[in-house]
Specification:
- The termini are far apart.
- This protein is of the alpha+beta class and about 210 residues long.
- The longest helix has 15 residues.
- The radius of gyration is 19 Å and the shape is elongated.
- Helix content is about 30%, strand content about 20%.
- The strands form 3 sheets. It has a 5-stranded mixed β-sheet.
- The chain folds into 2 domains: about 130 residues, Glutaredoxin (3-Layer(aba) Sandwich); about 45 residues, Antioxidant, Horf6, Chain A, domain 2, CATH 3.30.1020.10.
- Strand 6 and strand 7 form a beta hairpin.
């Protein structure tokens, strides 16, 4: 199955390191990050799960539920989580799915046969409260994720969901944003009273409206 942006994220029930759960029930009305790992006890993934745990407050303040996936069983997950907590000096407080039958991996297209016929690639999905997929990133097994980029994208998605703006290249929270083309230039002052600047008729900037 090939998921695309805007598709509804498939629901599933699964065994996890925190017991059985229903994905939609776990998300509730929050945003979600679902990300996969090739296998337990892999070095890059150990650092990634540790980094995710260290950013738990950042995810929480954005109302983001995090859930990870590996094709190994729960008992193996528990041992790996102990290693992650020890080596990364964290407390993994989010569930790790035991996708032994690869049902979730297949539903989300996490198996890329030309990369590996058995292991999931390092895929990541950001899912909005209406259960739509807003971002898909797939990393090779050799490259760890940039979690600051993931937080940056969440900030952008949450901002642009509520205002008629887009975020420019390398944008970070607090910086100026782009007014979308659907807004006429003469209507900008009423919608964005903080001011605006026009670089080109199609390129208009305004201060981040929710700051």
């Amino acid at each position: 199955m090939s998921l695309r942006l805007g598709d509804i994220a498939p629901n599933f029930k699964a065994k996890t390191s925190q017991g059985e759960l229903d994905f939609y029930e776990y998300i509730g009305d929050s945003w979600a990050v679902l990300f996969s790992h090739p296998a337990d006890y892999t070095p890059v993934c150990t650092t990634e799960l540790g980094r995710t745990a260290s950013l738990s407050e950042e995810f929480a303040k954005r109302d983001v539920k995090v859930i990870a996936l590996s094709v190994d069983p729960v008992d193996k997950h528990q041992g790996w989580i102990n290693d992650i907590n020890e080596t990364q000096n964290v407390e993994v407080n989010f569930p790790l799915i035991a996708d032994e039958n690869k049902e979730v991996a297949e539903a989300y297209g996490m198996i890329h046969p030309n990369a590996s016929e058995t292991a999931t690639v390092r895929s990541l999905f950001i899912i909005s409260p209406d259960k739509k997929i807003k971002l898909i990133i797939s990393y090779p097994a050799s490259t760890g994720r940039n979690f600051q980029e993931i937080l940056r994208v969440i900030d952008s998605l949450q901002l642009t969901a509520n205002y008629s703006v887009a975020t420019p290249a390398d944008w970070k929270e607090g910086e100026d944003v782009v007014v979308t083309p659907a807004i006429k230039t003469e209507d900008i002052p009423a919608k964005f009273p903080k001011g605006h600047r026009i670089v080109k008729p199609y390129l208009r900037f305004t201060p981040q409206p929710n700051k």
